[in-house]
Amino acid sequence: xxxxxxxxxxTNNRFRSTPMAxxxxxxxxxxxxxxxxxxxxxxxxxHTVHEEETNGHIPAGRVxxxxxxxxxxxxxxxxxLKQVRRNISKQLSxxxxxxxxxxxRNEQIEQIxxxxxxxxxxxxxxxxxxxxxxIGFLATLSDTFLVARLALKLFAYLGGGGTWVxxxxxxxxxxxxxxxxxxxxxxxxxxxxxxxxxxxxGKKPRQRLDIFVPKHHWKENDTLRPVxxxxxxxxxxxxxxxxxxxxGRRLSKHGCLVCCLDYRNFPQGTIVDMLEDVNTGIGWVLxxxxxxxGDPEQVYLVGQSCGGQLCSLTTLLQAEQAIGxxxxxGGTPKWDITHLRGLxxxxxxxxxxxxxxxxxxxxxYFSLFxxxxxxxxxxxxxxxxxxxxxxxxxxAHLMPPVLLLHGTKDTCVPLYNAKQFHQxxxxxxxxxxxxxxxxxxxxxxxxxNPMRGGTDKLMDDILSMVKGEEVITVQYSLCPGFLVxxxxxxxxx
Length: 493
Hints:
Blueprint: H1 7-13, H2 19-23, H3 25-31, H4 70-91, H5 99-120, H6 129-158, H7 162-177, H8 179-191, E1 195-200, E2 208-212, E3 225-231, H9 245-253, E4 257-261, H10 271-288, E5 294-304, H11 306-323, E6 340-346, H12 352-361, H13 366-372, E7 374-375, E8 378-379, H14 386-389, E9 402-407, H15 415-427, E10 432-437, H16 448-452, E11 454-455, H17 457-467, E12 474-475, H18 481-490
Parallel strand pairs: 3-4, 3-5, 5-6, 6-9, 9-10
Antiparallel strand pairs: 1-2, 2-4, 7-8, 11-12
């Protein structure tokens, strides 16, 4: 079966749902003397067409010959894909909309696009610094619109509750107060050659990462750099890879390669999709980071808030299934746990079952939280809580050292949650250290302290684990101290 023998014929014959089009399908196919199109059921897998499969016919979007460039071919395929998407949308009825079928169709089309892109192997035209910044800005702007659209869907799902409105207004004020620092990070993120933005680590939506490199010519040095993979928080709903740019900038300045993973948030996906994305991203880093000057044998995993839950779960499940059967939830795709040198949880969520009531009081209502923590239609709070996932000492020798960092004034995720996880790790024989930040909140180690300048405890603790010795650094200020103090007071987290 072929999918791209004639894309225009596919869109005209298969995806139009009118009776007249259905009746004239055979005659239209016979009239196409140079093209043969096979119409398949929607659930069949689509495959890209190779030249030997066409029996001498040249498919649309695959024009060959000296007079046609690969870019022209790609444009043809891209145009055809847009036609397919448009017609699929028309074909589906809102009355009996099948989300699973739509998802399968979408993944099939995305697979075709990716296969075409790999086959064309289009050369990359050298770009100026300004062109790279502009392209990166447009890509991030597109991601921002996506996050905003999903946030609006989430807001509609919640019914516009007053708690969320109040927290959103506080978040806007928080951002405005810290704007002097955020503006500097904006220019660094888009203009610095030390940031490689939106590298694809998978083929599904949001499977992208940013790489922060130590200096402009870091790969000219034969020494491979230690790698820090950072998974951001965001209450499983508003996370984005750019949230880790402040930490990525400072860690990379001290010799690390930092990979900030993006992943699907709710309602784009549930916790199972998030775990799949994180596993896919870690596996990609282990396989590909040496191409960027990173050492795949020195990889450290850092997760903040719900990112701490995702990192802890993936690490525990990979260690468990390395010596036993395949994990039912969160164990795919597999990657080699022995390459991981350390796991750091920052203000992490480790016990979803105990925190469910607490989150409901803070606006993450039962209905929403249960939907996020669902697997095959059932809520699985304990199966998705690292504290409960730790089972005995049979895989303790495979686990990397664990460092848990938590503030005493964290009202978003209480400190006792980290203490429970620390005790569970100790009982299982896994090396674990709990470091309590006196007077720190949920976000202050990650945002307010670096903005204020001076000692950055979070970065020092991560660097100390990476370098194997105590590290104390002093950072310059990005924002006036009084603005940082006001921002900490209005912070909604």
